[in-house]
Amino acid sequence: MTGFRNYIRVLLAGATAAILLTLAIPALASPSSEAAALEKQLDEIRAEFKSAGAAYDTAYWELDETEVRLSEIDGEIGQTEEELTRARSVLGARLDRMYRSDSVDYLSVLFGARSFQEMITRLEFVQRIGAADADAIATVEALQGRLLDEARSLETAREDQTAKTDSLKRERDALQSRMKDKQKEYDEAKAKLDSIRRASSPAASPSSVPSAPGANGMVFPVQGTNYYSDTWGASRSGGRRRHQGTDIMSPNGTPCVATLSGTVRSKNSGLGGKTIWLTADNGWQFYYAHLDSWAVTSGRVTAGQTIGYVGSTGNASASSPHLHFEIHPGGGGAVNPYPYLRQMQ
After folding, report:
1. What is residue 85's predicted lDDT score, i.e. its pLDDT?
2. pLDDT band with cut points at 50, 70 and 90 for residue 204
3. Residue-number span of the structural domain to which 309 is assigned
4. Are residues 179 and 259 in the same domain?
5. Is the pTM of this model over 0.85?
6. Structural domain contains residue 225
7. CA 304, CA 222: separation in Å to the nearest integer?
8. Terminus-to-terminus CA distance in the chain, angstroms?
């Protein structure tokens, strides 16, 4: 009887353990499901973020190019007005001389001819001079009219672009805020899942994805949600300079990593704000600008190591944090980073 009771106790203990284990499984799976759902939401927001960012980027550069063209048109209009003033002055002086001479000079030119044929020739010459002046003025006035029309058209385009840019900027800022919220939720769920995994298997390490190099052997410099486009050579500061890099738009504080192994040196400059120059082991140099802060200010770094964080220092807009990234092969002049960045991802 005692043995039977012990047998029953063993069965009950086993059943209890099985029930507890069954109850524990959903608890273990729940954070994983939550993380998967949040990761899916993050992917959707990333896609929206990139789409809105690309549209904003395009509108921003179109607006800047419009400003440049407007400036050029203003200069052309100024030149045309000067030409028109000179032409009118010349014609006015001629008319004034003719008026004061009471047409005597004009008549003397005609009747001073030694033959009727010469008088006809002189008359045609005088008329030709007058017609040429009139044609010149008409041409200049027509040119001025066209330039003014184009300036008005460009001004309208600039107003439209400004409204479009403002709208896209609001949309982008809203997406940035959503991204931060979702990223926080995801990080919390991931931390819970890592904690459960460590508890169930002490040897297990938290899941992480190291910064891996792309097809060209380089690591993408921004490790987080981002968007960028090919703006190499686009106008900057109203055409006073041209863009010599790629702006990688990303939320403030996003980690920036070393593209290749090498040495770094940091600097605080006017336009670039907090910057880093990375000199890779192969002699190439990489320029990181507008950083919010540095993770490394000098010394040796390895590819994929965090060296700074996305910001808006220098002449960057606080509402548009981004990394200005340049590539200088062999330490020489800057080249378009866009095709290299595409191969890094």
Report:
1. 79
2. very low
3. 235-344
4. no
5. no
6. no
7. 10
8. 71
Q: What are 70's two structure tokens? A: 């407007």
Tell whether 37 and 95 lie within a shared domain: yes
The H-assigned helical ranges of 101-115 are 104-111
CA–CA distance, 344 with 265 (Å, rounded to integer): 23
The average pLDDT across 146-162 equals 80
**Both 179 and 242 in a single domain?**
no
Domain total of the chain: 2
Q: How many residues does the chain have?
A: 345
- Burial degree of 228 (CB within 10 A; 0-12, 13-18, 19+): buried
Q: Is the pLDDT of residue 161 over 90?
A: no
Q: Are residues 271 and 173 in the same domain?
A: no
Residue 292 has pLDDT above 90, yes or no: yes
Integer CA distances (angstroms), 231 to 59, 115, 183, 228, in order: 12, 72, 28, 9
Q: What is the CATH number of the domain that holds 89?
A: 1.10.287.1490
Q: Which residue has the tokens 């009139």?
A: 134
Residues 13 and 131 grouped into a single domain: yes
> Are 156 and 279 in a shared domain?
no
For residue 277, is pLDDT > 80? yes
Q: Are 267 and 277 in contact (CB under 8 A)?
A: yes
114 within 8 A of 72, measured Cβ to Cβ: no
The pLDDT value given to residue 26:
46
| 159 in the same domain as 93 | yes
Rounded to whole angstroms, what are the CA distances from 273 to 252, 285, 289? 14, 18, 6
Q: What CA–CA distance (Å, rounded) separates 55 from 49?
A: 10
Mean pLDDT of 9-28: 45
Among the ranges given (69-78, 199-208, 237-246, 326-335), the one the predictor scored with the smallest mean pLDDT: 199-208
